[in-house]
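Chapter summary example.
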Amino acid sequence: MMIFHGILHAQSVIDIHCHNVLPEFRALLEQHNAALEETFPLPEWSEDAHLKFMDEAGISQSVLSMPAPQPWFGDAEECRRAIRSYNESCARLKAKYPDRFLFCASLPLPDVDAALREAVYALDTLGADGIKLATNSRGQYVGDAELDTLMQILNERKAVVILHPHKPSPVHEDIIATTPLAVYEYPAETTRAVINMISRNVPARYPDVKFVVPHCGSFLPLAIPRMKAVHPAMVSKGFMQEIDWEANLRNLYYDLAGAATPEVVHTLLTITTPDHLLYGSDYPYQPDQVLKAGLERMRAWMSEDPSLASLLSGILYGNAVALFDKPW
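The structure predicted for these 328 residues follows.
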């Protein structure tokens, strides 16, 4: 067992889902009038504020990833520079606080060739702890065939890939004006992307990549049984290929950011195993006190549920230690 931030104990927490909003990223979005592209304002972030939140919440390590949207506005070189700047900033932050921050590097998709180069640089040179992939990068969805070369590189490096929903493409603009993306479209978008991956047997074909599905698995506990039920008919009509269900589900992990409840956890356990559940805060998208209270409620209801109490320590830190499997 590896040691995270000193002695591992029952109060340690590893936050698998949080974001750092850097000034350069915010400036680029404002330059392109894209600050509200995801229908929610970017929150303020600083390393000092994040560390303060972690200390108060009892979080020993945080795994940082770039927030939405993807910084691609038609200029491939601009996107490449923005992504490189973000990844190198994260590497410096990790070097400054090696016991507190990890990071999953971003990639300049939809430019696949540039993404291949950045993945190699981030993982092999910068020491990134994984890769963050948007569910779609300007319409290019995770699971699409054009990303198979990227998946091969990630598979060779046994990479952890953190998925995160971005604005769907296309999307009904009137609908999201009434109901912001986080309410419905984000969980639907995550489900859409993972179903796309499973339909093409991406997790099965690249078995050394471990995918972290955000926000309590979104709608997957409902979508996967339905997909299994209709799949034979789709195959018989030639509309889908055969799916290796066990191999595809084996390397899917799930963070509990957003709306974890006893019912949600029990439902997730119908499609996965307890060692594939991970804590996530989604910092800084809600106030510190809301996130701290949510973590304490999770501790309480899990501790009080006889069927879940034994899973708490794994969800809060042990499963993340095993997932990344690195000697920090």
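To summarize the output: The beta strands are 14-19, 61-65, 101-105, 130-134, 136-137, 140-141, 160-164, 210-213, 252-255, 277-278.
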